[in-house]
Amino acid sequence: xxxxERLYFIYLAVAFLFIFAIKALARPNTxxxxxxxxxxxxxxxxxxxxxxLPTRNDFGILTAVTLAAALGIFLANLxxxxxxxxxxxxxxxxxxxxxxxxxxxxxxxxxxxxxDVSAGIVIGGIAFSGSLVAFLxxxxxxxxxxLPFFNLLNILLWAALIATWLKFYETQSINTALILGAMAVxxxxxxxxxxxxxxMPIVISVLNAFSGFAASFIGFCLSNIALIITGALVGxxxxxxxxxxxxxxxxxxxxxxxxxxxxxxxxxxxxxxxxKTGSVEDAAYFMQNANKVIIVPGYGxxxxxxxxxxxxxxxxxxxxxxxxxxxxxxxxxxxxPGHMNVLLxxxxxxxxxxxxxxxxxxxFETADVAxxxxxxxxxxxxxxxxxxxxxxxxxxxxVSKAKTVFFVKRSLxxxxxxxxxxxxxxxxxxxxxxxxxxxxxxxxxEL
Amino acid sequence: MSFIFVTTVFLLSCFIGCxxxxxxxxxxxxxxxxxxNAISGIVIIGALETAASAQSFNTEEILSLIAVFLASLxxxxxxxxxxxxxxxxxxxxxx
Lengths: 447, 95
Known about the structure:
The complex is a heterodimer. By secondary structure, chain A is α/β, with parallel strands linked by helices. Chain A is 60% helix and 7% strand. Chain A has 2 domains: 83-258, no CATH class; 280-446, TPP-binding domain (Rossmann fold, 3-Layer(aba) Sandwich). In chain A, α5 packs parallel to α7 (174-192), α6 runs antiparallel to α7 and α8 (200-222) runs antiparallel to α9. Chain A is globular.
């Protein structure tokens, strides 16, 4: 298709709108503007495309868009705020599948069997099935422990995928393209099936990047500048987010997908030591007499939906007992990037009181109470001291420096990493066993 | 468009993507994911193109229409999810 110069510049402008939209998303006070800017850009792109194209099947297109709009907006507003990670995963998968189908349609139409269109199909296919698995895992429908043969299976599939790809070049047929797409979907499954829950924020970022790159490659074969730039933006952005998070965990991307944390064992045993169990009365007493309390939320808070109870606890401590309350958030806490922040925002916690890793760490020394709720590995001091620990090198929240630490956990079990947390056995640590929300509500009742 | 030209555009866009995304405060990473998710639905333009130029009601048109549906779902869902999340952050701004 010959694209006129004017259309080219409109598409270019749309891509620029998207860049400015992401720039606006950088700060809370301009973030909403960013979202509107991106919506506007998308609207312009779609309308212009509809206007200049030969209008052959308006009815079909209109029906598809209307149905999707209704379903998408309905789902986005219906779901629980705690289910947002899986919703994002699902939408991402849908986008990947869309790229795959456009690639196939383009092949049928133009009889082009180039690298770019096949890359769009392969990457889109991986994004699709990978996101679907991420969705199922986040929804707790599907759980699996990493099995040893998965790595072998992955390598075999890689080889088969590349072989099919070469075959595709040789035969130039739609049938091999279909097989290639199917293999990509299969590969996406086996790639994400063994990934553990704590690595989910990284995996979601990577899959997000994949759906972006898929769109970009489709743009290559359609010679569409909007697709190329936007896809590359999303692809590179998702990649850099994943890299940030793997750095915060001191892991690398290959390890997330191919190396098990669970199979590594630490030599540290704490058989001779016992953890002290505290009571909610203790917790209430320590907190109301404190000058400074730091709350450290983790996935357990999200799972229990404890954010509103936490906000109430903070409010009572501040207003009734004049305690300074702060929230400390680790970059990889939760199941998606920024997960904890959204939940605290949902509970209307003032974000001036929410701090990142480096901002809050010097504060623990002067804190009287650290209230760790549903978090474990991100506080484990072995990450600093024990070279053999699977967590070694990861930056942690230094809760052990607080005068008293309360751990709300369901059991004394080790974290996702399999590493036992020596903090549990320290003299100034008190364990509160139970559901994060329930325990917090019980403390509130004591105040 | 020549291959060299589109590759240059692609690489420079990757660079810009890294820059702008690095600038986003970690607290807003979730809405960022959702917005970038929505804008990757730009592939809808490709779907519209393949749908419009299809000859009759054939396989490629059906594939394209499904792709239009899926990309739209990605777009509307993504923007709605991010709008919902950003509303939460706004409430705290106004206080």
